[in-house]
User: Which sequence fits this backbone?
């Protein structure tokens, strides 16, 4: 690069040819490499090249510290992004629960990179087999050498047992009805060989991938816990709706006596308030139908405020909400319910439009009231406040962000080409 | 001779009491329940009057507050209804048939045959009736018997047949039917000094081939492992009605100890009818833990499961007497077990010429 450069001074050469190189950094680099700022790039000697390289790599130091360089821009990366991951996973494997996690872009060895992971869980996949691992590098699927790949190793390093998947000894690819997608987007993807079949080891990337998987795992655990709770509720319903009436009818028949009144027994057995939530995709209307039913199986009258999460941030609109209520915070709707007498039920129904299939499959139901509700979570008022606070800050946040980008621009050299598409950091230019 | 069966009306009344317990609870606005004795070794106690182990006073309540136990109650109701239908129609069915019939019971159908067997036992325990009263037959076949003893069996055409279990049978012996009650079998006469119950078919056949029953004037009974109810019942009847000593010849391992306990003291699962099934006068002949040493028998190491079983037996009230405690501890110390057929180490005739005569002499039977 130096020999072909027509620049007259090293400082100009550095600033023109390297990304994010400030005047300060260029001066410091040259200082550390013991090269004159005014030296002509063309006339540099081989030892000087080496010295400069050493300065870049932090082997030569200034006051015992490597020269500080700006991180390379990361907006040149091309992640798949959540929506596409979700759609892709749901298309290949028809199932209910999909979760994704996209980490913020970061830098390793001077190369920007970004990790994305996705997981699909549910029916249609074998529970006693290792999960399917879908590896991608810069949106290109990696088909071979799964075992020797960094992305696989990251999956293996996670103890999946705590997130609800089987894993012998907490090591290796977990087992379960799931598929895990891992995508590494980087300007310089390091492969193990020219065949580009597997990614080479890099402890930073591994750690970053691991973090993404852990975060995603928490989503899975939450989903499984909820499912377990729902199954329990379902059992109770079967108990009081089917089995108890059958016992009453059969015993009455055998003894030749009238079928007894059941309400008392049912209240006694359940002695709970139960909320049942159903979020389903309506094929005909192409909308998501949500219904929340509250049953009072206790011997006393109860009054509650029910709250439900909905994807307001994702641009959904709530329709046909005949039971009214009001907006509690962004993405949280609240209904103050009339008093529920023992044995009474209350149904809330609404439709969400502006969503695609699979975008919204789970509605979280919260409640405010003294008695616990099975199938709903007690509203954490602190959490709600936090959401409200974020909302209030939200607008100013955006301003701050734009301020920062202004600063960044003013710092950046005008010669730096605006990052577009995929571009390798060191490949651009001469 | 105690009569163990109930009349059809008694059976129905007892079953109705179970149903009424559930019905009344619903009327009271409570969860329906079924109360039954705890069926573990912690709840069996020696009954002085009967000389066997029976269930103690501990009761557990199965109530319909969980899906599993509610389904059990519903199944019990279906079974009661089914039994009543059989009683009225004069039919009977096997436990397996009942399991298949339950396919039509919708929510009350059984998940496995084990469930239906257990429920039949539950009902027996609660109502104090027997499964014969319920018109339910087991799948298991009874044991084989050989020796100079004569009995009368009423065959399926209702005719009484006189059978001598030595002269009228082949080498496989007389097959004991599932029902050995008075209405089916009468014990007529015998010319034997004692009865020997044997665990394995191989040993049973060895003794027959060697003519042991004739040389020692005894009846031989093949237990087929853990003996069926009818096997235990006929052993008990012969022992009582003919006043004969019973010796039990089993493998030398923890499971054989349990077989002996169920013959002599009553099984935990059937403790509600121990007085009909157990033969308290039965004696354990071998193979004892000291036989393994004394006869230097080929042996196997105790598996972890064996050791666990032995330790459980140490706290089992049926093995509380000093002789059993010593045997169990000795086996634990040795860490060895031996099969009956390991006696063949010294030749095919060793068991009939040496081992059994020596052991019987100790008991004063030979």
Assistant:
């Amino acid at each position: 690069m130096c020999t072909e450069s027509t620049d007259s001074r090293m400082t100009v050469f550095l600033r023109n040819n390297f990304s994010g190189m400030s005047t300060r950094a260029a001066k410091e680099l040259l200082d550390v490499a013991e090269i004159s700022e005014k030296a002509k790039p063309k006339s540099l000697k081989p030892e000087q090249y080496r010295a400069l390289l050493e300065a870049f790599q932090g082997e030569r130091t200034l006051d015992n510290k490597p020269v500080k360089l700006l991180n390379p821009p990361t907006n040149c990366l091309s992640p798949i992004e959540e929506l596409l991951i979700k759609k892709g996973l749901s298309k290949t494997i028809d199932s209910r629960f999909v979760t994704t996690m996209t980490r913020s872009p970061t830098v390793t060895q001077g190369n920007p990179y970004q990790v994305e992971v996705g997981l699909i869980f549910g029916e249609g996949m074998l529970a006693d087999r290792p999960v399917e691992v879908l590896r991608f590098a810069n949106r290109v699927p990696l088909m071979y050498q799964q075992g020797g790949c960094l992305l696989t190793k990251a999956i293996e390093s996670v103890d999946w047992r705590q997130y609800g998947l089987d894993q012998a000894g907490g090591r290796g690819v977990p087992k379960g009805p799931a598929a895990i997608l891992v995508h590494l987007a980087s300007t310089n993807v390091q492969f193990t060989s020219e065949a580009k079949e597997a990614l080479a080891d890099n402890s930073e990337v591994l750690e970053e991938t691991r973090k993404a998987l852990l975060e995603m795992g928490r989503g899975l655990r939450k989903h499984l816990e909820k499912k377990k709770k729902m199954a329990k509720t379902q059992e109770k319903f079967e108990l009081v709706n089917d089995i108890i009436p059958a016992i009453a009818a059969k015993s009455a028949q055998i003894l030749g006596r009238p079928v007894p009144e059941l309400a008392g027994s049912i209240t006694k057995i359940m002695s709970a308030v139960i909320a049942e939530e159903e979020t389903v995709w309506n094929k005909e209307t192409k909308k998501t139908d949500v219904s929340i039913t509250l049953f009072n199986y206790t011997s006393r009258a109860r009054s509650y405020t029910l709250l439900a999460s909905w994807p307001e941030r994702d641009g959904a609109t709530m329709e046909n909400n005949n039971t009214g209520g009001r907006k509690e915070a962004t993405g949280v709707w609240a209904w103050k319910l009339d008093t529920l007498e023992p044995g009474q039920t209350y149904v809330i129904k609404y439709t969400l439009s502006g969503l695609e299939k699979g975008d919204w499959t789970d509605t979280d139901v919260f409640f405010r009231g003294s008695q616990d509700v099975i199938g709903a979570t007690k509203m954490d008022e602190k959490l709600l406040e936090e959401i409200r606070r974020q909302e209030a800050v939200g607008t100013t946040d955006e301003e701050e962000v734009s301020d920062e980008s202004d600063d960044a621009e003013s710092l950046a050299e005008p010669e730096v080409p605006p990052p577009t598409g995929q571009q390798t950091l060191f490949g651009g230019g001469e | 001779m105690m009569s163990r069966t109930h009349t059809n009306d008694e059976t129905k009344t007892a079953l109705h009491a179970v149903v009424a317990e559930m019905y009344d609870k619903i009327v009271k606005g409570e969860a329906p329940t079924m109360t039954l004795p705890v069926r573990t070794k912690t709840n069996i106690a020696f009954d002085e009057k009967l000389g066997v182990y029976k269930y103690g006073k501990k009761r557990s309540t199965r109530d319909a507050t969980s899906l599993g136990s509610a389904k059990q109650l519903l199944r019990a109701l279906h079974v009661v209804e089914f039994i009543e239908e059989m009683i009225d129609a004069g039919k009977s069915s096997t436990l397996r048939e009942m399991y298949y019939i339950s396919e039509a019971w919708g929510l009350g159908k059984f998940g496995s045959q084990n469930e239906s067997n257990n429920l039949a036992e539950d009902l027996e325990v609660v109502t104090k009736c027997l499964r014969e009263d319920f018109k339910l037959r087991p799948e298991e076949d009874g044991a084989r018997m050989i020796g100079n003893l004569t009995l009368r069996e009423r065959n399926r055409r209702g005719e009484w047949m006189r059978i001598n279990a030595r002269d009228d049978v082949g080498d496989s012996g007389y097959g004991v039917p599932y029902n050995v009650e008075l209405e089916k079998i009468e014990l007529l006469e015998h010319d034997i000094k004692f009865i020997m119950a044997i665990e394995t078919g191989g040993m049973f056949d060895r003794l027959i081939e060697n003519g042991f029953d004739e040389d020692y004037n005894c009846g031989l009974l093949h237990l087929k492992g853990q003996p069926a109810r009818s096997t235990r019942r006929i052993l008990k009847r012969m022992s009582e009605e003919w006043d004969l000593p019973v010796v039990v010849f089993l493998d030398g391992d923890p499971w054989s100890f349990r077989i002996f306990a169920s013959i002599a003291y009553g099984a935990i699962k059937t403790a509600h009818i121990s007085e009909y099934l157990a033969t308290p006068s039965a004696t354990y002949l071998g193979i004892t833990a000291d036989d393994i040493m004394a006869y230097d028998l080929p042996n196997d190491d105790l598996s972890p499961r064996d050791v666990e079983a032995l330790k459980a037996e140490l706290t089992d009230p049926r093995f509380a007497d000093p002789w059993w405690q010593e045997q169990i501890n000795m086996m634990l110390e040795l860490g060895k077990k031996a099969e009956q057929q390991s006696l063949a180490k010294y030749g095919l005739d060793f068991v009939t010429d040496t081992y059994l005569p020596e052991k019987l002499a100790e008991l004063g039977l030979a």
